[in-house]
TrEMBL record:
<keyword id="KW-0695">RNA-directed DNA polymerase</keyword>
<protein>
    <submittedName>
        <fullName>Putative reverse transcriptase domain-containing protein</fullName>
    </submittedName>
</protein>
<dbReference type="InterPro" id="IPR043128">
    <property type="entry name" value="Rev_trsase/Diguanyl_cyclase"/>
</dbReference>
<feature type="domain" description="Reverse transcriptase">
    <location>
        <begin position="1"/>
        <end position="131"/>
    </location>
</feature>
<dbReference type="GO" id="GO:0003964">
    <property type="term" value="F:RNA-directed DNA polymerase activity"/>
</dbReference>
<keyword id="KW-0808">Transferase</keyword>
<dbReference type="InterPro" id="IPR043502">
    <property type="entry name" value="DNA/RNA_pol_sf"/>
</dbReference>
<dbReference type="InterPro" id="IPR053134">
    <property type="entry name" value="RNA-dir_DNA_polymerase"/>
</dbReference>
<dbReference type="Pfam" id="PF00078">
    <property type="entry name" value="RVT_1"/>
</dbReference>
<dbReference type="InterPro" id="IPR000477">
    <property type="entry name" value="RT_dom"/>
</dbReference>
<keyword id="KW-0548">Nucleotidyltransferase</keyword>
Length: 169
């Protein structure tokens, strides 16, 4: 994640595109649909799109997104699962590249959830950080969450806290 964030240094304009139900935009190959079958008291069910609970779903989706965005990765685009961040120094260039990415997504039949998209920001919250022209900072909301975290006793609760706190080490 640090490598991704390092790419943002010096950028002044940001746009975020959040893909709508990301995994559900991935169609399962016809010959693989029977492999997803299961029975319930309501009958026989088969998935035609990638379900959210598959172990490999994030990796498969990331592979698709990296393939689709490959020409632009590390230049002005970061992809993290179903979040796409476009970053550039110039507003005019940002507008051109944003249009290019939106047209690419349309061509590939990948659709954003408009209510979660943000365009031409000068400060963006991304991967638990706040990024602007002055640099990259830990999101203050995450710091506050660590400060007010109640004492936990079970191993699961402790692991959850350590995961959050360790992310910002």
């Amino acid at each position: 994640i640090n490598d991704l964030l390092d790419q943002l240094q010096g950028s002044r304009y940001f746009s975020k595109v959040d893909l709508r139900s990301g995994y559900h935009q991935l169609r399962i190959r016809e010959e693989d649909i029977p492999k997803t079958a299961f029975r319930t008291r309501y009958g026989h069910i088969e998935f035609t799109v990638m379900p959210f609970d598959l172990t490999n779903a994030p990796a498969v989706f990331m592979d698709l997104m990296n393939h689709v965005c490959r020409p632009y990765l590390d230049k002005f685009v970061i992809v993290f699962i179903d979040d796409i961040l476009i970053y550039l120094k110039s507003k005019k260039e940002h507008e051109v590249q944003l249009k290019l990415i939106l047209e690419l997504l349309k061509k590939e039949k990948l659709f954003g959830k408009f209510s979660k998209c943000e365009f031409l920001l000068q400060e963006v919250h991304f991967l638990g950080h706040v990024v602007n022209s002055e640099g990259i900072h830990v999101d203050p909301n995450k710091i506050e969450a660590v400060k007010i975290w109640k004492t936990r006793k079970t191993p699961t609760e402790i692991r959850s806290f350590l995961g959050l706190a360790g992310y910002y080490r």
